[in-house]
Write a structure and sequence with these properties.
The complex is a heterodimer of chains A (446) and B (123).
Chain A (H helix, E strand, L loop, with lengths): L7 H11 L29 H13 L22 H7 L17 H18 L3 E2 L6 H16 L3 E4 L5 H12 L4 E4 L18 E7 L11 H9 L3 E6 L18 E5 L15 E5 L11 E6 L5 E6 L5 H4 L12 H38 L4 E3 L7 E6 L3 H10 L6 E2 H4 L7 E5 L6 H15 L1
Parallel strand pairs in A: 2-3, 2-4, 4-5, 5-6
Antiparallel strand pairs in A: 1-7, 6-7, 8-9, 10-11, 11-13, 12-13
Helix pairs in contact in A: 3-9, 4-9, 5-6
Chain B lengths: L1 E4 L4 E6 L2 E6 L1 H7 L2 E5 L6 E2 L4 E7 L3 E5 L4 E6 L2 H4 L3 H4 L8 E5 L11 H10 L1
Antiparallel strand pairs in B: 1-2, 2-3, 3-9, 4-6, 5-8, 6-7, 8-9
The chains are: A alpha/beta (446), B alpha+beta (123).
Chain lengths: 446, 123
């Protein structure tokens, strides 16, 4: 049975009511060459068992990140997520609708959002955080648009170390809201060059630390210059675990802090869904995009949670809303919050130290290989290596030996240097993995 | 001193070439409890009908438009800490901005107190 309640008579009645003859007339505004006149050539339906077999064969063509030495980072990080996280996120307390506008039936979800926001605020060293964005790149783009609202200025400067994908997402959004974006060519440790570009027309400066090459950037001098010109410093991170060791951006003068939260509680998920973190100073809170959960008391005086500052949002303020985001990454932010609670402050620091130790071990080994040179003067758990060979070729060859040896920089930025390989080591990397990668690399570069 | 009203429920109280702008008690009661007022920068030049401020209540956020063209001379800083005075005293303590009026002729397009009372009764 087809679940279509309307017959042709119903359809022609409806079309008549709006004054068109044929359904095709409704698509007239789409250019002909952009429309397909033929139906897609899809295969026939198959029984579930066959579909399953087909999908498994497809997935077998990929190398499973969990079963091979794995050194990829560059925006998505493979950490160990305790199985308790997966168990807890499925509890019925959290199964309320993901849009918790009715606090009387959504206290489980709302309390998590409130705790999540508190964790993000502490992690970033900021006063307030929202209930999350789609991912780090869109959070970054939204921060730039927010800076325009706050400063009423139209120029944004992007530091060279910003992840190229974040840069692209930001340029895409900025182009439709009248913001000029100035992006400097990506080079390691040239982030401080933005200081000379800041002037009274600058709305914001976007700086990532650790940057896409893994280099740690001191935000303080950039913040100082920004504030002299009434511009905002937007601090970005792609690896939340780094904040377990690095001084929070809020303590370095950042006005808005955005980043990717995937590294805590969330798997690689083929690049998404992830969870964007967004925090700012309290005085900017009314210009912050997204939803915010607040603590209050109910009619009986009990502690309770509600969505707050909703009047900034699209369903009320329409075209004057702070953003067109009407949602958050509910499930990923729940997983983040639970993993963070399991770790605790001390646990996060221990995890961060473990990551840094593994990366130190690996960097020292790789730097000794002929034809490979570690470029960083500082790093957390990933770093950039200059190779004597094309990095993409080396990575492909390593993959054929079942080693996922890192991300070529040119994969993130096609115009970028071809010989730079970004290598990451988290706590999941063990001595055997390091030995395997290093001896394979030696062979490749011989 | 004479007071004029717009169809959007702003009032302007004229003293020679200066005017004090706020929102009417009718507007304030329709909005409900005001929780935040976003004010313009001092020195900003405004066209008549241009957005002057944003007033946020527990149930809505609305724009406040400038009744006349002019320049912002001062803003009511008290609203930053105590936005509820817009509800408590819309015509006195709850004023928004003081502006210098560039063309007094624009006042002819506004309503006086009696006309505004009729306008509110009708709408």
């Amino acid at each position: 049975m087809r679940y279509l309640p309307l017959d042709n008579k119903d359809r022609s009645q409806m079309l008549g009511a709006i004054g068109v003859k044929d359904i095709e007339d409704l698509f007239e505004c789409i250019p002909k060459q952009a429309r397909s006149s033929e139906l897609f050539d899809l295969p026939c339906h198959k029984p579930e068992s066959e579909v399953e077999k087909y999908m498994i064969r497809l997935s077998d063509k990929s190398i499973n990140a969990s079963s091979v030495p794995f050194f990829c980072g560059a925006g998505a990080y493979k950490h160990h997520v305790p199985s308790s996280v997966d168990h807890l996120i499925q509890r019925s307390e959290f199964l309320t609708a993901y849009t918790p506008y009715q606090p009387e039936i959504s206290q489980g979800t709302l309390q998590v959002l409130f705790e999540f926001q508190s964790q993000v605020a502490i992690l970033t060293g900021m006063e307030v955080a929202n209930a999350s964005m789609y991912d780090g790149s869109t959070a970054c783009a939204e921060a730039v648009v927010m800076a325009k609202r706050v400063t009423k200025k139209h120029k944004a400067i992007i530091a060279p170390g910003l992840h190229p994908h974040y840069s692209l997402a930001t340029k895409t959004l900025a182009s439709s809201v009248d913001i000029d974006v100035c992006v400097l060519d990506s080079e390691i440790s040239s982030d401080y060059e933005v200081i000379d570009l800041i002037n009274d027309e600058t709305a914001c400066i976007v700086v990532q630390s650790p940057n896409v090459f893994g280099e740690i950037v001191d935000l303080t001098p950039i913040a100082e210059k920004a504030h002299q010109h009434k511009a905002l410093l937007i601090a970005v991170f792609t690896e939340p675990v780094a904040l377990g060791l690095i001084k929070p951006p809020g303590e370095q003068g950042a006005d808005i802090v955005v980043g990717e939260g995937q590294g805590i509680g969330v798997g690689l998920n083929f690049g998404g869904p992830h969870v964007g973190l967004f925090a700012c100073n309290k005085k900017l809170v009314r210009q912050m995009p997204g939803r915010i959960c607040g603590e209050t008391i109910d009619a009986d005086g009990n502690r309770a949670f509600v969505l707050t500052l909703s009047t900034r949002e699209q369903h009320i303020r329409r075209d004057k809303a702070t953003s067109n985001i009407c949602t958050n990454s509910g499930l990923c932010c729940l997983a983040f919050s639970i993993h963070m609670s399991l770790l605790g402050g001390k646990g996060l620091r221990k995890l961060a130290i473990l990551n840094h130790e593994k990366a130190n071990l690996l960097a020292a080994r790789i730097d000794k290989i002929n034809g490979a040179k570690v470029l960083n003067s500082s790093f957390f758990n990933e770093f950039a290596v200059e190779l004597d060979k094309c990095a993409e070729d080396v990575v492909d060859s390593l993959a054929s030996k079942n080693i996922l040896g890192g991300v070529p920089f040119s994969r993130l930025n096609k115009a970028g240097a071809k010989d730079i390989l970004l290598i990451c080591a988290t706590e999941i990397v063990d001595q055997h993995d390091i030995d395997t990668l290093c001896s394979a690399l030696e062979e490749e570069l011989r | 001193m004479s007071i004029y009203f717009t169809k959007d429920h702003e009032w302007i109280n004229i003293n020679q070439k200066e005017g004090v702008v706020g929102i009417s008690s009718h507007a304030a009661s329709q909005l409900g409890d005001v929780v935040f007022v976003e004010l313009p920068e001092i020195g900003k030049t405004l066209e008549s009908g241009e957005e002057l401020a944003v007033v946020e209540s527990v149930k809505a956020a609305s724009e406040v438009y400038s009744p006349v063209s002019g320049k912002v001379l001062s803003v009511n800083k008290e609203l930053e800490e105590n936005p509820q005075i817009v509800n408590e005293s819309p015509f006195e303590d709850g004023w928004f901005v003081k502006i210098s009026i560039s063309d007094l002729n624009e006042l002819k397009g506004l309503m006086n107190q009696d006309e505004y009372n009729v306008y509110c009764d009708e709408s």
